[in-house]
Amino acid sequence: MKQSEAAQSEAAESEAGQPVVAIIGAGIAGLAAAFFLRDEPVRVVVLEGSPQLGGKLSVAEVAGYRVDVGAEALLARRPEGTGLIRAAGLDGDLVSPGTTAARIWSRGAMRRLPARQFMGVPADTGELGQTGLLSPEGLARASREPELRPTHRDGDVSVAGYVAARFGQEIVDRLVDPLLGGVYAGRSEELSFEATLPGLAQASRTHASLAGAAASLLPPPPPSPPPGSPPPPARPAVFTTLRGGLGALPPALAAASGADVRTGAMVRELVRGPRGWRLTIGSAHAPGHLEADAVILALPGRPASRLLGGVPGAAAALGEISYASMAIVTLAYPDAAFPQLPDGSGYLVPAVDGRPVKAVTFSSVKWPHLRDRAAGLLFVRCSVGRIGEEAILQRDDGELAALAAADLAAATGVRGAPADALVTRWGGALPQYTVGHLDRVARIQASLAAQPGLAACGAAYAGVGIPACIGTARAAVDQVLAGLRAGSTRVRSTAAVRAPGSSTPGPSTPVRSTPVPSTPVPSTPGQDGE
Ligand SMILES: Cc1cc2nc3c(=O)[nH]c(=O)nc-3n(C[C@H](O)[C@H](O)[C@H](O)COP(=O)(O)OP(=O)(O)OC[C@H]3O[C@@H](n4cnc5c(N)ncnc54)[C@H](O)[C@@H]3O)c2cc1C
Fold first, then answer.
1. Does the pTM of the predicted model rise above 0.85?
2. Between the CA of residue 480 and those of 34, 40, 42, 305, 529, what are the distances in Å?
3. Higher-pLDDT residue of 238, 85
4. Among 221, 289, 308, 325, which one is most buried in terms of CB atoms within 10 A?
5. Which residue of 299, 357, 433, 472 sits with most ligand 1 atoms within 8 Å of its CB, as the best mutation to test the pocket?
6. Residue nearest to atom 22 of ligand 1 (CA)
C-alpha cells in the first residue's frame, strides 16, 4: 500500500467504533448534509474534488470588493435556506433586497412585469395590456385564455407546449421563457411543466383556466386603502442574502459541521467494500482510499453517474440529465457612467430577441448593503449562456466582458468602459429538468434505495434553488441514518450514544476558504429557486 493510501485508510478506520459517512461534493448540498450530521454519532468525511468549497456558491474580488460570482440570492419563503443559515449562526448577516422589481427588455423597450403572474403565467390577462410586452395580436390571443375549454394533457408535457396552448406562443416567448431561463438557463420547449412548475401543474388540474390556476397560487391583491390612510405594511421580502455574499456560507457551514472536510479530494471510484463502501480518491498514480459505512453523493448528474457504475439504474438515469453552461460577467461602473441610476433589480431578455446577455442584475440597487460598502460604484451582473448557446462561451474573457458591456449599454445607455470586469465560467451550471424529469428522479431514487448506505442530494433532483438543494440534503441524511440504524447497533439515537457534554467529532483537516476562479456572472432576477 502506498503511503498516501495507507494514511487515508487509516484515518477512516481509526475510530472503529463510529460509522463513517462519506459525503462526496462540497457544494451547498454536501455541506448542508455534513451540517445536519453534526450531532449524530458518526464520523463525517466530506470530499471535494476542486480546491475550494461551495460549488456554485462563490465570492470573488471585483474593483477591490468581494461579491458573489455564483448564486447571489436565496428564496426566503422556503424555510430550508434561512433555517440552515440561522442554525449555522449567521442570522445576523442576513440582509433584505432594496427592490426585487425586475423588468423585461423586450421588443426594443424596458417593460415592467405584470404584478399578478406566476413564473410569467399571467393571473390577470387584463393587466397584460398595460405592460406593452405583447403585440396587439399576442394580447388578443392571450386574453381569450379564460374562455377556452380545459386543455387535456396526458402525462408530462413541456412548459411551452402547455402554456402556448392556453395563451398563445407570445406569452411563452416574451414572459415565461425569459423567467424560466433565469432559473434554469433552459428552453421552455424542453422543460417539464410538472417538474419546473409543480405548484402550477397541480393547480391546473383543478382549474379550467390556467390564469385561474396562477391566481390561486398568488396572495390576494391588496385592497385599495381609503384616502388619507397610512400605507399598508410592507410584505416580507421574497429573497435574502448574506452581507458577505452567499459565498460566505460554505466555509461557515464546513466549520460549524465539525466534519473532516477535504478539498482537492476528487473521488474517482466507488465500489462495495468490507465496511460498506470503498472510495478511491485523488490521482490515478497516487490514489487514496476511504472505507465508509454510508455514502452521500452531493454531485451534479454526470459525476454522480460516473461513480455509480455499480448501480446501473441510477447511473443511466443520472446520465440522461443534461446541463446548461453559462458565464457571469461582473462589471463595476462608476455611478456617473449611468445616465440615471437604475431603479429596479435588473432585467431579463427573451431568447427570441437573440441578444448575447440573457439577464442582468443591478447588484448595488438590489442589495443596499453592497451600495453602502462601495459608495460611488455600481456592480452589475450579466448572465450569458442558455442551453444550446455554448458557442458564445467559447470567446475569451476580454471578448465576453466587452460583449456584455456593449449589450448593457444598448439596454441602459451606460457610458464608457467599466472600472473593472470579471468573467466567471460555470460549466455544467444548471441541470435541465426536461419532460419526464420526475420519472427519471423516481428511477434514480428507487435504484439507490436498493443499495444500503447510499443516498444522493443536490440540484439534479427536486429543484435547483439553494433551499431545494438543502431540502434534498436533509432527506439524504435521514435516509443514511435510517439505514445505519437498521443495519447496526452502533447508531441509535443521538441522546443514547453521545456522552454528556460531548460535541461532534472534531475536524481532522482545517477548513479554509480557497480563492475563487477568475470569472464573474450575474444571478438573474428570475432566479427563484423553485
Ligand atoms: C451562476 C449561477 C447562479 C445561480 N444563482 C442562484 C441564486 O441566486 N439562488 C439560488 O437559489 N440558486 C442559484 N443557482 C443555483 C444553485 O446555486 C445551485 O443549483 C446549487 O448551488 C447547486 O448545489 P449542489 O450542492 O447541488 O451542487 P454544486 O454546487 O455543483 O456542488 C457539487 C460539488 O461537487 C464537486 N465534485 C464534482 N465531482 C466530484 C467528485 N468526483 N469528487 C469530489 N467532488 C466532486 C464539485 O467540485 C462541486 O463543488 C445559481 C447557479 C448558477 C450556476
1. yes
2. 12, 12, 11, 19, 26
3. 85
4. 308
5. 299
6. 459
